[in-house]
Amino acid sequence: MLNILPLGPEYSNKQRAAPIQSVLGRGGNKKERVLLTVTGTPLQDNCKLEKMRYAVAGKIISKEEALKQIKKKGWQKNVVIVVNSPQKGSQKIEQQFVLVNQASFAKRQGLSLMKVHQAAKKSNKELFKELSQGSSSPIIHQNNDFTRLAAERIKAIATGQSIVKEACLKLRALHNDSEKKDAIDEYLQTAEQIPDKLLKKRFQKMLQNGQDLKKLDKVLNKFQNTLGWETKDYENPLASLFENPKEIEFRSAVWDIFQQSKPIAGQGEIVISGYVMSDGKGDYIHMQNMAKKLHKQFPERKIRLIVIGAETHKDKLPLLDQSVCTTNLTYSGDGLYTCPRFEKSPFDEDMSPLIQNADLWISGPVGISGLFDHLYQEAQTKGIAFTEYDTDTNLAAGSFGSKIKLGLKHAGVFTQKVREGSWKKVQNETLKTALFGSIHPKKEAIADYLASHQLLMCYQSNPTFFFNQAVQFSTLSDPGKSIDICFPSKNEIKTPGDIEMLIHKNKLKELGVGSIKWITADESGQQKEISIPIQEHGKELRIINPGILTKKDFKLITLFSAPLVGCTGDHSLVQALSYGKIPAYEIVGHKRALAQNLYDLSVKKFGEEAALSKYITACLTKKLEDFDPKDLISQGKELGESIRENFSFNKHLKGMVNARLCEAKDSEFAAFEAQLKKNYLNGTITLEDLKKQMREELVRKGIL
Fold first, then answer.
1. Cα(674)–Cα(32) distance, integer angstroms
2. What distance in Å separates the CA atoms of residue 135 and residue 467, rounded to the nearest whole number?
3. Is the pLDDT of residue 508 over 70?
4. How many CA atoms, within 13 angstroms, populate the side-chain half-sphere of residue 508?
5. Distance (Å, whole) CA 207 – CA 164
């Protein structure tokens, strides 16, 4: 149950990241269900067993074979088999099951996956002995007492880290506060809330040793290393974790001024490096968008991408035209929530000289871990690192750069232009046939469909709650129309039982749904339908699985669909926001800050009682609440316009790059900027003084 070490790339992503629903199946005479996790995630296949049996990597095997494989792989201290006995009501089963999937546990507890992983790792050392008492092998028949014990211990440690980190953030913000002693006393009291005794003791000692302001950074750094937070001992090791708000204001002001300047002259390369995780291609799209933007803004310079993609994407990541960007691409590992650490290069040649010889090096949104750690000097002098939206991964890279965030004082997000289009430009034949009855629909057929149906886009891995949201939204906003949901699922869904695992029948019944029709196409392109009755009277809900959508189709369908969009991950969320849609955001534990920032932006613009603010809260808590559709739709559009105007990473990109190129190439300017920053942080000049002096310096140098 508490398996910590992930498997290597010899196992498929499906085996390592199967959805919870595939395990919590309904029906059948299952006396026992056996799950073996060696990755922190459940097996893909249901195991319907009369007697206890053993499974490794998705295959049911004998106990002897299981022990042999475990010994061969060196898993003796890491593997636990869990036996769950089905009980009435899925909630009770989920409570037993929750620890099998660390991601699910993190999401339920509102913790980051990294915290849960670290907590489980620490807890496992003590708990494993208790779990394996009376057994000669590490294969354990798990009971409810041990399940609760494990859950409580992991939550205690992870929550403790959360309290500590929050306190560290506040302390860092108070770095120059004259009342710092009182602040430390306050957080010594906060430490009493930490449930883990060892963690509490270390934190209290850290605060007491941090009385000397000069030692605070060093003490915080040492403490975070004790917890396993990844970082490097750079000049300011915690800059990316605990940023002074005035430093953010300074940097934003400099970027804005450089955004208006001429491109810094030169023909040296700009290198962008990053990892594409197995959960989607969004990070690759972001890197390509950055490359295309830089190609337009710095036409004299060569742009290069150095990319490692997860094995899942092998031969599926398209290259940009050579005239726009040179791409060095390889595939290795199968990182789902973090980039694997690369001690050896998966490339055929050494990529380090390309970075060393470049004029600028941009790392992210997911930095490549390990491979370029030795390029310390390059990182300090000409590096910019952008981590994923509002997450704390890849902190080593982030220590010499900035974060792509939706916060009120951060670099913003990759916004998209709203372009005109038509349904005729959509290429997906399965969807067009289901909606219009033809792959080449006439204008009249499209108009008839739009007059009688509302289409909602759902790009989520666990869509159950969104299906309820979609029905409620459509019923309130346009009650006379039929409801269709476009759900491009990556999983094979072939039977009524598979579909029932994705829906909440009782809730849909309450919302007035009479039946569900699942529409997809087989390999030959032939349309297939599966119908599931809910109740005798009610609306028909059609769920259409068009398969994997092209980038162009994804944009067009999101644009043409109803104002409510189900999204997960950075790319789909920003797509929805850019188009002024209402984002029904599927929250991942390590991205909870992104949802919180979205809520904060809504509150700042419309207030806490506004329809959009309440709706975002409902998404966070997974509760359906009534709303005024007119207010919700109009506020969604306004928020989208505000984000495109004020929180666009694209609009800052030229300014960021110009500033970093100027710093790296002009030592005189770098010294001027450092002094200007010092004066601003010390309070000897105002923000307006800062902007005026920076403009004058750039005019003097002929840049502005």
1. 66
2. 45
3. yes
4. 26
5. 11
Please indicate, yes or no, if residue 37 is contained in any of the structural domains. Answer: no
Same domain, residue pair 516 and 542: yes
Burial 436-465 (b: 16+ CB within 10 A, else e): beeeebeeebbeebeeebbbbbbbbeebbb
Alpha carbons within 13 A on the beta-carbon side of 184: 20
Residue 23 included in any domain: no
329 and 393 co-located in one domain: yes
160-210 per-position pLDDT tens digit: 656 665 655 555 555 444 455 555 555 555 556 665 565 566 666 655 555
Strand spans (E) along 278-396: 303-309, 326-331, 360-363, 383-387
pLDDT in tens, 353-371: 999 999 999 887 788 888 8
Q: Note the pTM of the prediction, 2 decimals.
A: 0.59
Residue range(s) defining the domain that contains residue 327 = 244-414+653-703
Q: Is 32 helix (H, G, I), strand (E, B) or coil?
A: strand
Contact 546, 525 (CB under 8 A): no
CA distance 493 to 471: 21
CA dist list (Å): 303 to 203, 271, 356, 437: 45, 6, 14, 45
In our burial notation (b when 16+ CB lie closer than 10 A, e otherwise), range 75-103 reads beebbbbbbbebeeeeeebbbbbbbbbbb
- Please name the residues in contact with 87: beta carbons below 8 A apart, sequence gap of 6 or more: 93
Same domain, 407 and 288: yes
Burial of 625 (0-12, 13-18, 19+ CB in 10 A): exposed
Please answer whether residues 401 and 384 qualify as being in contact, where contact means their C-beta atoms are separated by less than 8 angstroms: yes
What tokens does 441 get? Answer: 């629909």
> What's the domain count of the chain?
4
**Across the beta sheet with 48-49, what order do the strands follow?**
48-49, 32-37, 80-84
Q: Which of 514, 510, 520 is nearest to 543 (CA)?
A: 520
Q: Assign residue 622 the CATH number of its domain.
A: 3.40.50
Do you know the residue count of the chain?
704
Query: Distance of CA 243 to CAs 173, 578, 600, Å?
Result: 7, 28, 19
Looking at the structure, do residues 305 and 351 belong to the same domain, yes or no?
yes
